[in-house]
């Protein structure tokens, strides 16, 4: 694209004044009275009248290949001579004369009205804002108004201009004392920085469609005009006094009102916040965009950190952070068509007969249950089973890979390092009657730790139904990992443990870990919180509570 710039010679002087208006232009000199016979500089209506003349002369070419401002004519063409001849012909017809020394031809870019215009781009003219960095801190309101006048001229280049300038514009209000605060200094420095680092904007193509994004907040209204993903201009304004009290939806309507003023081009597309809502009850309001919602559902169901939870768990996990209309139905439908879930999960129903659950513990990790998942394929590290340890109160579980040949001493080492070091010594432990737990060594270990052992009834898994049900979960998860990732089950086990403990628990009405991450675990010398409160000796009770707070 070629750019040409034509400047008229003393533009105002090329217009004659009507004879009966000539006396109105009289001025006094020492040589007598003089009158203008042509339009003079300095008359109030001179700019508007001359601009009106230029618009009439070039009416048929405006915004097609020509831009006119007073006596400056800017021509943009794909070829060198395509439109120049038409413009010169118009000037000849209306007897308007250009000054050759001020005209510029065949330019790749041209300065025009404080901007640098080039092929498809427009930027701030560096020569016009070079003095901005040396601009002294305003000391009176007039200096503030002068700075904001310059900055406001280039506001289309500055995103959120109104919000940034708000501390300074408040000084222009009637009755506001001039006090230069740190907040106003920060706004002054930020505007100087934005002016000297203004972005390059794209020139609009009126034959193509536009996209207008608008938004509102308690600080102001803002819009951005874009075309094909490129910024054409920014627009913003501060809230009026009565608008500060508007609710969110009314502010969004005010932003739409600004948007309606930019209806240009072909089929403009307008975008604003869906129903003006970004947060709903402290949850992210997900817009009605299928790709975004599918990504969220996939992250909550298919990844190694979630491992195909059921629809109920998945919904409760998601609703803590996200919301959209029909989210529960979307979750149910997503899980229902998951091929992996259909292949690995069996239907779990409550066994027939009267259930007699064990008494609920008073404190977390006060009572635990243990069991083994056996019959698994042997891994490269020699594991062929999983030791499942479950806290009966919080339902938090640990899945420890082991081998069925491990001795009681080896299991004791794992028990100390994986359970006791994290949660303290439990008061009661429920086992099945496996040989690992009935050994003399195991009994002596727990006797020294002051833990009571309780064995479930032989061939009656309902005694420890919690662990039996928990065992089914890692089995389903590991089968899903084997299908989806093809890795060895011991490598997927940490992800299964994380997913299980970080998922929603129906009996707790929240995640397992929410209950686990709280006050410290019990200890045989400190006891739980309840035990410390029951201590009969006030001196000992105070010492235990003080030491417990120091430890935790």
What is this structure, in a nutshell?
This protein has 18 helices and 24 strands. The chain has 552 residues and is α+β, with helices and mostly antiparallel strands. Strand 19 and strand 20 form a beta hairpin.
- What is the C-alpha radius of gyration, as a whole number of Å? 39 Å
Share in helix: 25-40%
Structural class: alpha+beta
How many helical stretches? 18
User: How would you characterize the largest beta sheet?
Assistant: 5 strands, mixed
Number of extended strands: 24
Q: Could you list the spans in which at least 5 consecutive residues all have pLDDT below 50?
A: 517-537, 547-552
Mean pLDDT: 77
Alpha carbon gap, first and last residue: 72 Å
Overall 3D shape:
elongated
Strand order of the largest sheet: 20-19-18-21-22
Commentary on this structure:
Keywords: Endonuclease, Hydrolase, Multifunctional enzyme, Nuclease, Nucleotidyltransferase, Protease, RNA-directed DNA polymerase, Transferase. GO terms for molecular function: endonuclease activity; nucleic acid binding; peptidase activity; RNA-directed DNA polymerase activity. This is Integrase catalytic domain-containing protein. InterPro entries: DNA/RNA_pol_sf, Integrase_cat-core, Integrase_H2C2, Retrovirus_Pol_polyprotein, Rev_trsase/Diguanyl_cyclase, RNaseH-like_sf, RNaseH_sf, RT_dom. The structure is a single chain. The chain is an alpha+beta fold and 552 residues long. Helix 4 packs antiparallel against helix 5, helix 5 packs across helix 6 and helix 14 packs across helix 15. The longest helix is centred in the C-terminal third of the chain and has 20 residues. The protein starts with a strand and ends with a helix.
